[in-house]
Write a structure and sequence with these properties.
The complex is a heterotetramer of chains A (517), B (323), C (373) and D (305). Chain C is mainly α. Chain C has 15 helices and no strands. Chain C is globular and about 65 Å long. Chain D is globular and about 55 Å long. Classes of the chains: A alpha/beta (517), B mainly alpha (323), C mainly alpha (373), D alpha/beta (305). Bound molecules: adenosine-5'-triphosphate (2 copies) and magnesium ion (MG) (2 copies). Chain C: It comes from Sneathiella marina.
């Protein structure tokens, strides 16, 4: 038996960021032509490790072997030369450029762009065919949905001749369909002999597609297993260091009065496109209404209209019986006073001010509440106390309320936002993408919190692109397509196929029934 | 006919006044498109104006002066890059510091060298860029309209005016059609993307700032050895800031920036002719208001017609890899 | 392993005094070194120059009075630029707003001087604030509602303010008995009290405005970090989307911040016109608005930092004039060079020596081992 | 030996190519002739005016010359506080027992060069370029205009001011453009009273082969061949004489008006303009000068409107 050198081998990698030892003596071996998963809690050091492999950061010590050869990787260029490509968690694309321009950036092949562009166009066509990666190469990247942007990133790597492709949480922002498509692409890549390293928080994906898994915890590599020899429960335990419940345990809902009632709601965006069309929904106290749908079908706009950020074109919204549309009170500020909580979809863009300290972020949106104000003064003590309570209740790490939130990991940032909105004890809670980019330990926690709120007779509306998530926490599920509500079903009756069809815009109940098992 | 001729002459003045603005604004375009704010255009121009005039006076050659102007401006640009790129200093402060240092240093050196109160000797002959008569300009003079336009407006400028005219398409070509331009634009939009593509962000910014320095050097040289004939302290008189305003006004794009520069220059040329003119109804408008007219007009245009500008996304932020 | 530990041991935490004292001092020394070289080139004694500069700024009571008087102006413009910065705005218009502030003081002092002293003094100060704020309002409104770039509009408004002031002083407010473009002297009841009227110190322009500037600095700190309005301004400045999500109107806060900024800049008019000149004149803003940008940035937009930066520039202005006075070869241009070099080294190149200084500190203290959390 | 003269220049600085520079030249000449050094200061901030005047007094200056109208209130304060120090202010009147005020009749000199301009002009149009629009500059402009009209009642004067900030005194490119715009409109002689901005005006005139008239000091050498003449304002002489008088003990407080009669203003005739400034022009100017001195011609002083 010939021992083929592993495609990638890491030996005793160490990396520190100030006081944080992000990677401790990491050793890893990845076989050629395999898909290798890496999992771990938020802040476990996965992204750091991969950034080191890609030459973006430099390890304090340690060695990297590619195909058995010691590689001195000290910048992305040397890593690209060694055949490594990386798709970063936050895409490294220039939004104002076309796909083509993004792909050739750095490998333009000559001073005049025209030559490089035409060469790249041909090459990209080939790659697109070979790996089923269709994108319009002349589209402006900023206009593309995330799924397509990711393909651009993959194309970028392949165009540079990557043999080893690293993907950092690629499905975090993808719809299930997009994720499926991605996995098909990864499969093809593997079949073509490429090596894929996949970082993810989703055990389902690990089980579905990887050949082997490595688990990281607190900067250390704690386990390597063959995917075939493990299961989700075991992986979860390895990751978090305790056993994790992967299913949400909940009693059936006992909804009572309607707290949020939406009738014929329409919203037209700045470009004159109707983003919400005659949406009618209601949420009762004591239930969770899940909104499923492929992202970009009006869910974001629905949340922002309900949150008082966007002004609807027409329709009616009643909070606790009070008509909001056309009312002076229909502002984000007043809605909070009336008893609305809103966890936005994107914590970085709207939920937090990254340069603020944690305690300053805990009053975002509630800055004029009497609780935090003492006459003219903002009551710093009250802010810190509240923040400490949240940190304690929601198990946020690190625990210092004076730290800048940019220094918290995504999961912990999400917990801070959730804590802020939930602890104000709202009657109606809007939640967008509750667990995006969050590790499973935290997911479990967040889901339980939502159920607890439901059981405290609150009306909760959850928007999520994760079908699993919607199915497991929602009591009723509304599916949106192209700005309209395709249908509302009881989650007991929901199946993945049925929801999938609805998400594609199919209303025909016969077809749905037929699809039902 | 006379008003036609006056209009042409006014446009002629517009071109002369616009030249340093165009060169400086395009210079700033490279820097700002690469993500580095450059309010040091003023200082670079002033430095170049001084060096060009001083060297031209000594050497007797405007071209040698131009070389000195460019070299000086390049050095100042390198200083800006050293502060803001290498040491991640604040770009606005660095630009201001350069403006202030040059404003003091140029006359100080000028006084030490020429003992003429910080001024350089008056330049004449080959020490100054002279007007170029284009072929047949003389003959065309008498052809109505077209010939007159050719002779007065197109012909008879100094070489740097033509350089400025050429700089617009060249800049557009470099920015949009070359590898260098692609990388400059990328580094100003998303330096992380550039870094992960294996290109050094710092080096790109240095290069872009070098181009800025080069073009600013020409702009400054124009002031002292082409349009004027010698250096006098503070002779840029805010043109660097005006060029920056034109750049923003033109939304960081070559042709709109050119138009903004021409507009500024035109209002400037027009206000000279409006001073003291009796207007119907309002009578004679106070000189100060006529002089403020270009600025008022700019504000009105900005408020009325020019929509929101989208500056390069990474502008003003020093690039720090480990975010 | 022990070796590895040492290698990866977290470097000792850099104490505050390194950052807030050693680094700035090293930067200043560097600026003076380069200035010294220039002074040597023009043939004078740099050590003596430094002595004169320092003595001129702090060496005797009159010098201190002048230094603090300049400092007052820089505090006002520094705070003005800083409050706009907190809202994510770049106010280059402090110069024009200061001109308008002076105009406000002048109009009240010229036309309402029959009012009692306890009324006219605060009225003139309020007028300065209102005029400055009003002048900032237009660019702010255009930025908030029409997206007109505030950097351009404020630059333009500087020119327009200068034109307006020149027009008024040449045509309207000019002292009918005088020949220069300035108004008549104000009635004494409108003057702000000088320090030398109450303290035993020589006559200097230092007046009540200085105390006022210090009080405003404290208010600034309180407002920006300890009130909901300051909080909202900072949210808008850091993240407009988050502001909208939190029910904070970016437009309203942009206008508020700019008007506060304009009002602060307008107080230069209080110090100069009401405190010192006692008549409306041209050019009293003397570039304080522009230097305010450097003051705010060097002071990290924090009132304590702004005070220190303002003091530095105040000292430079006053010490510089002493230097120009005492040393023949050093003229006003040379002073400008020194000021520029200080802005360069303490502002733009502030990080140049930091890593080296920190490295030296670490070598002295040695590494510390801290485990990851 | 213990005679200590002092001079405070105003904002333009001692190398402003006109007023302050003329004073500097006068002071330098005094230093050369007598070997007595003088103290000096260039004002850069408004508040420095008072500070400088007082500091000179404190340093035991025997005589302090303050340049420019803007220093009036500073001189007033300093003079009151230092009644034993002699002050001379130029271009403005301060009525105190220890202050001498020297004012020039710029309008008279401007009147004369206006005559030359009108006579040299073939088109009947002449130009005027001022720095900032302030009363002093209007004084120049008005006298000039009257002179032009006196020589040619049909003439037209095109008048331009450079700007509204102090930068207007140092903007040669703008000055050049203003001059060109006047040439474009038919003017063929231009008179600049604009400090450093004038340099650009003269250059522009030389480039366009038109005539220009200098101001304050004799600027004819700047562009030999196209400088028609210069309107002289003998600030240098005034400074020199003031120092000398103070040294000799003949200095007296009060107002000193320097017009044509006192040779305080005038025009230049020298080797650079001898080919352009024709004997007829000189004769006309000399005649007007005599008439002004005798009171036959009244030139309006803008300040006395
Ligand atoms: N640039 C940096 N500066 C300082 N600390 C950093 C930096 N990058 C990462 N860290 C720290 O290193 C640790 C590991 O971070 P890393 O991004 O590798 O985690 P991760 O496993 O990718 O987390 P996630 O699942 O949230 O993506 C974290 O504690 C983080 O705080
Ligand atoms: N300046 C910093 N100082 C300390 N830690 C940092 C810093 N910047 C980033 N980090 C850490 O680096 C890690 C990775 O950052 P990144 O932006 O990828 O966030 P993330 O945790 O992956 O969140 P998300 O998945 O929501 O994007 C985070 O854990 C964050 O705590
Ligand atoms: Mg990560
Ligand atoms: Mg993450």
């Amino acid at each position: 038996m010939t021992i083929e050198a592993p495609a990638l081998e890491l030996r005793r990698i160490n990396k520190r960021f100030g006081p944080v030892h992000a990677n401790k003596d990491i050793t890893l071996s990845v076989n050629r032509g395999s898909i290798h998963g890496i999992i771990g809690e938020n802040g476990a050091g996965k992204s750091t490790l991969m950034s080191i492999v890609y030459g973006f950061y430099q390890a304090d010590s340690g060695e990297i072997f590619v195909n058995g050869n010691l590689c001195d990787i000290d910048n992305p260029q040397s890593s690209i030369a060694a055949g490594i490509g990386m798709v970063h968690q936050h895409f490294m694309l220039v939004d104002t450029f076309s796909v083509l321009e993004n792909v050739i950036l750095g490998v333009e092949g000559g001073f005049k762009l025209a030559d490089g562009l035409s060469k790249a166009r041909i090459e990209l066509e080939r790659l697109e065919k070979e790996y089923a990666l269709d994108v319009n190469v002349d589209a402006i990247v900023g206009d593309l949905p995330v799924g397509l942007r990711q393909r651009v990133e993959i194309l970028k790597a392949l165009y540079r001749g990557a043999e080893i492709l690293i993907l950092d949480e690629p499905t975090g922002v993808l719809t299930p369909q997009e994720a499926d498509h991605l996995f098909r692409i990864l499969d093809i890549l593997r079949d073509q002999g490429k090596t894929v390293i996949l970082i993810t928080h989703k055990l389902r994906e690990i089980m579905a597609i990887t050949d082997a898994v490595s688990v990281m915890r607190r900067g250390e590599m704690v386990a390597h297993v063959e995917t075939a020899n493990t299961n989700r429960e075991q992986l979860a335990e390895l990751m978090v260091g305790r056993s994790v419940l992967l299913h949400v345990e909940k009693e059936p809902a006992t909804p009572t009065e309607t707290l949020l009632e939406i009738k014929n709601l329409n919203y037209i965006d700045a470009d004159g496109v109707g983003r919400l069309r005659d949406v009618s929904l209601d949420v009762k106290a004591g239930e969770i209404l899940g909104i499923a749908g492929v992202s970009g079908n009006g869910q974001s706009e629905l949340l922002e209209v309900l949150g008082g950020i966007l002004a609807p074109a027409s329709g009616s919204i009643r909070y606790k019986g009070q008509e909001m549309c056309g009312s002076q009170k229909f502002t984000a500020r007043n809605l909070r006073k009336i008893g609305l909580g809103h966890v936005p979809e994107d914590r970085h863009r709207s939920g937090l001010v990254l340069s603020f300290s944690a305690n300053e972020c805990t009053i975002l949106g509630y800055q004029d509440s009497p609780e935090y104000n003492n006459g003219l003064r903002l009551d710093q003590r009250a802010m810190i106390n509240a923040c400490e309570t949240y940190i304690e209740k929601f198990d946020v790490r690190p625990t210092d309320p004076m730290l800048k939130v940019s220094g918290f990991s995504g999961g912990n940032q999400q917990k801070l936002v959730l804590a802020r909105e939930m602890e104000q004890d709202p009657d109606v809670l809007l939640v967008g993408q509750p667990t995006r980019g969050v590790d499973i330990g935290a997911i479990e926690f967040i889901h339980n919190q939502l159920i607890k709120m439901r059981d405290a007779r609150k009306a909760i509306l959850v928007v999520s692109v994760e079908i699993d998530e919607v199915m497991s926490i929602a009591d009723r599920i509304a599916v949106m397509f192209d700005g309209e509500v395709v249908g509302v079903i009881d989650s007991k009756d929901a199946t993945e196929t049925k929801l999938g069809l609805m998400m594609a815009g199919i209303r025909d109940t016969d077809a749905l029934d037929k699809a039902a098992p | 006919m006379e008003s036609f001729q006056l209009t042409i002459l006014m446009l002629d003045a517009t071109l002369r006044v616009a030249t340093p603005l165009v060169l400086a604004a395009l210079a700033g375009m490279f820097s700002e498109r690469a993500g580095v704010v450059d309010i040091g255009l003023e200082g670079k121009m002033l430095g170049a104006a001084f060096a060009a005039a001083a060297v031209a006076a000594v050497s007797g050659s405007a071209w040698v002066g131009l070389g000195a102007g460019i070299l000086t401006s390049l050095m100042l640009s390198a200083l800006h890059a050293y502060a803001c790129v290498t040491h991640k200093g604040n770009q606005v402060v660095s630009g201001m510091a350069i403006n202030i240092v040059v404003a003091g240093l140029a006359p100080t050196l000028g006084f030490a060298w020429f003992k003429m109160g910080g001024q350089t000797p008056s330049l004449n002959g080959d020490a100054r860029f002279r007007s170029i008569e284009l072929p047949f300009a003389e003959a065309a003079q008498n052809i109505p309209v077209i010939g007159y336009i050719y002779a007065e407006l197109i012909s008879g400028h100094n070489i740097i005016v033509y350089m400025a005219a050429a700089a617009v398409p060249i800049t557009a070509w470099i920015l949009y059609r070359t590898r260098f331009g692609l990388r400059v634009r990328a580094v100003g939009e998303n330096p992380h993307a550039v870094d992960t593509a294996g290109i050094s962000v710092d080096l790109m910014r240095y290069k872009a700032l070098a181009v800025t320095g080069f073009m600013c050097g020409i702009a400054g040289t124009y002031l002292s050895t082409a349009h004027g004939a010698g250096f006098i302290r503070d002779m840029t008189a805010g043109k660097g800031y005006l060029a920056l305003a034109a750049l923003i006004f033109g939304k960081w794009k070559p042709v709109p920036t050119l138009i903004a520069c021409l507009l500024f220059a035109f209002t400037d040329a027009a206000q000279a002719r409006l001073q003291g003119v009796e207007l119907p109804i309002v009578g004679t408008i106070p000189v100060q208001f006529i002089q403020a007219l270009p600025y008022i007009l700019t504000v009105l245009l900005l408020a009325g017609f020019v929509g929101k500008a989208h500056p390069p996304k990474a502008i003003g932020e020093p690039y720090i890899k480990e975010r | 392993m022990a070796e590895a530990k040492i290698k990866f041991g977290t470097p000792a935490k850099i104490p505050g005094w390194i950052n807030y004292a050693v680094v700035p001092i090293v930067n200043l020394i560097a600026a003076f070194l380069i200035s010294g070289i220039v002074i040597i080139i023009i043939g004078d004694d740099p050590i003596k120059a430094l002595e004169v500069l320092f003595y001129g700024a702090f060496g005797y009571p009159e010098a201190i009075g002048y230094t603090l008087y300049y400092t007052t102006n820089f505090i006002f413009t520094g705070l003005a630029v800083a409050i706009a910065f907190h809202c994510g705005l770049f106010n280059i218009g402090a110069e024009g707003q200061a001109i308008l502030g002076g105009l406000g003081v002048g109009l009240i002092a010229l036309y309402f001087d029959w009012l009692p002293i306890w009324l006219i003094i605060p009225m003139a100060m309020i007028a300065a604030a209102i005029f400055g704020a009003g002048w900032a309002y237009i660019p702010a409104y255009l930025q908030a509602k029409r997206g007109s770039h505030i950097v351009i509009t404020t630059i333009m408004f500087n020119f327009i303010a200068a034109a307006l002031a020149t027009y008024l002083l040449v045509e309207v407010l000019i002292d009918p008995n005088g020949q220069s473009p300035e108004s008549r002297e104000f009635a004494e009841t409108t003057w702000l009290p000088f320090f030398h009227e109450y303290l035993t110190m020589p006559k200097t322009p230092l007046n009540l405005s200085f105390i006022y500037a210090l009080i405003l600095s404290a208010c600034f700190y309180f407002f920006v970090w300890h009130t909901r309005w300051g909080y909202e301004i900072r949210v808008v400045g850091q993240n407009e989307t988050a502001a909208r999500y939190a029910g904070i109107s970016p437009a309203k806060n942009i206008i508020l911040a700019m008007m506060l900024s304009g009002a602060l800049a307008g107080f230069v008019g209080v110090n100069e016109i009401q405190g010192v000149q006692h008549r409306l004149i041209l050019d009293f803003t003397g570039g304080y608005g522009f230097v305010g940008i450097a003051v705010a940035l060097m002071g990290r937009n924090h009132p304590v930092g702004i005070f220190l930066a303002a003091l530095l520039f105040g000292a430079l202005y006053q010490g510089g004039s002493e230097l120009a006075f005492e040393m023949r070869s050093i003229n006003k241009e040379m002073i400008v060079v020194i000021q520029g070099l200080i802005i360069l080294f303490s502002g733009a190149l502030e990080h140049m020596f930091r890593p080296k200084i920190e490295a030296v500190y670490r070598r002295i203290v040695g590494p510390q081992i801290v485990e990851a959390p | 030996d213990d005679f200590k003269p002092a001079i405070v220049f105003d904002m333009g600085g001692k190398f402003d190519k006109s007023f302050n520079e003329a004073a500097y030249n006068g002071a330098e000449k005094f230093k050369k002739d007598t070997g007595v050094d003088y103290m000096e200061f260039e004002v850069t901030q408004v508040s420095q005016r008072e500070q400088a005047a007082k500091r000179m007094a404190r340093k035991d200056a025997s005589i302090v010359i303050a340049m420019g109208f803007a220093q009036a209130s500073a001189v007033e304060k300093a003079a009151k506080e230092n009644p034993d120090t002699k002050f001379t202010i130029i271009d403005m009147v301060v009525d105190l027992p220890n202050v001498q005020s020297i004012v020039f009749r710029e309008e008279q000199g401007s009147f004369l060069v206006g005559i030359a301009a009108a006579m040299a002009s073939k088109t009947g149009k002449v130009g005027f370029v001022g720095g900032m629009d302030i009363p002093l500059i209007r004084k120049f402009a008005l006298g000039y205009k009257e002179g032009v009209m006196y020589a040619n009642p049909n003439a037209e004067v095109i008048e331009n001011m450079t700007g509204t900030t102090p930068a207007a005194w140092n903007d040669p490119t703008k000055g050049g453009e203003l001059a060109r715009s006047q040439f474009d409109r038919g003017a063929d002689v231009v008179f600049a009273a604009a400090g450093g901005t004038g340099i650009g005006v003269y250059q522009s005139a030389a480039d366009a082969k038109k005539y220009a008239i200098g101001v304050d000091s004799n600027q004819d050498h700047l562009q030999p061949g196209t400088m028609l003449t210069s309107m002289l304002k003998r600030v240098d002489v005034a400074v020199y004489d003031t120092f000398t008088a103070a040294k000799n003990g003949t200095w007296e407080p009060g107002i000193k008006v320097l017009g044509l009669k006192e040779d305080g203003v005038g025009f230049s005739v020298d080797k650079w303009n001898k080919d352009i400034l024709t004997p007829e022009m000189i004769a006309a100017m000399d005649k007007a000068k005599a008439d002004i001195i005798s009171g036959k011609i009244k030139v309006t002083n803008y300040m006395d409107r």
